[in-house]
């Protein structure tokens, strides 16, 4: 029988327990063990059964139990303490307030952070993988630092899928319905009590409506748009059905909702709650990029706005927008048929009044090798944001190469895409026992003085570290056995067939973790390149290794599912199944015991396709050692002693051969370095040389891999400068009007800018180190004046083909002006190192509100 209607009855708590509701509705509990203890004390069994879900726990507890608790002095005291702690956390000044909002007190009053997915806790499953987890960690770290971020995302009725396995090891997907009433979110309501909604005009149909849910991530509100509302036809209700499902048009609708609906939701949120409006907008990957178009609409045609022209509005929008790109794989870039985008933005479409041809131009691949028929969300992202970054140094470099077509006049190194390396949220990912170890050494678990943690690393005795590591390994083994039993039952095994699971994995064996999406570049199956050799490593009588593997394939990716099946089949082999396990449904709940339980975290992507990767950082914070290809973050922070680098066969074209070489190198490392060190124990059973590496890992990586470091970097390098430029433009928009007019004038006049003649003196033919080279450059500026440009002496080493490398720039200054817009610029540079030296002179536009020399894309170099 089917119900004709369903609703969720919210529990009524006795007044003495009202604080439980507040604690359940602020997700800070998810990274605060003392608050989790309070929920566990409500009913330990239900806490386990609900998968540590406070909202469902409170819904399941009976009245009688509540009455007992309301009379339990000990419980009430713990509850009051947790409530007071939350109150302090939410209101006391934190880093951002103490530092006056960033380094120089110029930080934005609020930042809108847009992302298609947010991975905050297992009980709010609105993420698929790394991008979402990163967004969740960004919000949590912002909350810990007091950075005034407002998250903006979608609420997917089915989230991502749940993974299970068929008997044959083929991935099965299910999409359980999430009932918002059972999630830790509340609906944004107008003062009248009506749900707050936003709407977007759709081609040939009624408006798309969405309501707004708010999740509280500590101090950070997260707005989530949901189209499951009365008044929407079914095809619109389905817009927020699931994450990354459906065809191109479906995705376009989701992205319109996220970007345009997201800005409208922020406005509603500010209007209703009085919250500061964002001064800076951050788009986490291209999917949310349409937010820039809605802001242009507000600034140009919205009756409540300042009625700027398009170019001025574009400057205002760009100044206050930050774009982070996340993929080094061209196929991973989000692109739509141009005609489809045209249809949705036609006259009375999603952004009425904003000219559709200007919109199309923003996303057009109008560079060499571009496809004229597509609308590219990353390209639009760069054009709508003055500041852009990749997510590790290597990824920044790869991105500069990938998008150089947008700045063809500049060398790759000068493409204005920086990098901020990702980080992970310590309190979410570090095992509680690890914090307890630090506490025994005198560092309070929620100390804001993070350096104190690294300071005590050397003072904790090896026995204590090793005992803790065993506890963590044991916990992982138990969790894995539970998951295996469940999975095998689902795969159709009879209970008599499950006995072996009781001895699957061993808490005293070197444990290696490997969990990631089954995208082909991640090479899930590299380790089984030589199955016999792998078997020998697993079954080594003296130094065995065990592997815990997990990962989901995208539902449409049969190639990825095949990789999973290969791994599953291997791990089904009775000879090795106690040493290699595949755990279905990799998610936050699995990840939390997984990282602390591993001794080694393995990662072997095809370099350089891993933009950053964060799972190895989580392992490192728990005293795990990384064994990884030098890609993403590991390329940057591997120092020779904090783990191992798997040598890569870069440049070997034959993919099979490359995989063979890299797999062999991996086996060699495990056999000759990793396992011998792990099993080399002293008289009390402690592997001292291993622990040396663990301590060094914590001290060298700990301070770098935290999301608080990442968020501080975003504040200092991107948010505060963006706010400063935006303020310079926005006070009365005169700055933006001027900047837009200046850009137009410079671009129109640029054909008249030339470097006509360059003279140097003081160095002769064979100069020595220390010689001073004087340079005079004669330039023609046409109708521009010397203040509009910068004349630069660019110098560096040279290749045999006279290409300049590792260039540095010195300014030449105006010395004399002549008739007809010609000028002489002079300067000098000291030759401070031996070897090849080359230089050139160039002219670039100069304005104090530009963020990079390449911003206008034009440069003048000597001709001939
Ligand atoms: C950390 C994490 C990821 C991302 O890890 P990568 O190293 O970027 O692959 C994905 N899923 C879950 C559940 C995680 O916790």
From TrEMBL:
Transmembrane segments: none
Alphabetical keyword list: Allosteric enzyme, Carbohydrate metabolism, Glycosyltransferase, Pyridoxal phosphate, Signal, Transferase
Coiled-coil stretches: none
GO BP field: carbohydrate metabolic process
One Pfam family of this chain: Phosphorylase
Cofactor(s) listed: pyridoxal 5'-phosphate
Signal peptide (from-to): 1-18
N6-(pyridoxal phosphate)lysine: residues bearing it: 618
Catalytic reaction equation(s): [(1->4)-alpha-D-glucosyl](n) + phosphate = [(1->4)-alpha-D-glucosyl](n-1) + alpha-D-glucose 1-phosphate
SUPFAM superfamilies membership: UDP-Glycosyltransferase/glycogen phosphorylase
EC identifiers of the protein: 2.4.1.1
GO molecular function: glycogen phosphorylase activity; pyridoxal phosphate binding
The DUF3417 domain, residue ranges: 13-124
Top-level taxon of the source organism: Bacteria
Biological role: Phosphorylase is an important allosteric enzyme in carbohydrate metabolism. Enzymes from different sources differ in their regulatory mechanisms and in their natural substrates. However, all known phosphorylases share catalytic and structural properties.
NCBIfam families in alphabetical order: more_P_ylases
Family: Belongs to the glycogen phosphorylase family.
Protein name, per record: glycogen phosphorylase
Species annotation: Nocardioides marinus
Lineage: Bacteria, Bacillati, Actinomycetota, Actinomycetes, Propionibacteriales
